[in-house]
Amino acid sequence: MLGGILVTLALSSSVWAIDVVKFRGDNGITEATGKILVQAADGGVLLLTPVGVLLPLGSSEVIEITQNDLPFQAATPKEAATYWLQRLPKNFEVYTTAHYVVLHNASRDYARWCGSLLERLYNGFTAYFSHKGLTIERPAFPLVIVVFATRQQYIEHCREEVGDAIERIQGHYNLETNVVTTYDLTGSNGTATAAQIARYIMQPGVQQTITTLVHEASHQLANNSGVTCRWTDTPQWVSEGLAMFFETPDLRSSRGWSTVGALNYERLQRFRAYLPQRPSDSLATLIRDNSRFQNLSTAMDAYAEAWALTYFLLQQNGQAFITYLARLREKSPLVYDSPEERVEDFSQAFGDLRQVESEFLRYILRLR
Question: Yes or no: is domain 77-227 CATH 3.40.30?
Answer without folding.
Answer: yes
